[in-house]
Design brief:
The protein has 67 residues and is mainly alpha-helical. The chain has one domain (5-56). The chain contains 3 helices and no strands. It has helices spanning 5-24, 42-47, 50-56. The protein is elongated.
Length: 67
């Protein structure tokens, strides 16, 4: 099967977009290390109090709230 002219041009325009992305985002920005989550060690998590555990997760509670 021979691609027609439009299919050929579309294929090359898609390749151009991927090449452009590669130029904008260098390999260091797309590295695996950038996506590696930071997970605390299990012993550290077990030793901390429940309030400290919430603080490390970025949750903030107002201590002055009355029920």
């Amino acid at each position: 099967m021979v691609p027609n002219r439009n299919e050929f041009e579309n294929y090359h325009s898609v390749l151009g977009v991927f090449k452009l992305i590669g130029i904008i985002l260098p390999r260091t920005a797309k590295s695996e290390r950038a996506w590696t989550p930071v997970v605390p060690r299990r012993n550290d998590v077990l030793k901390q109090s429940s309030l400290q555990s919430f603080k490390t997760r970025g949750l903030v509670f107002d201590k002055d709230v009355k029920n």
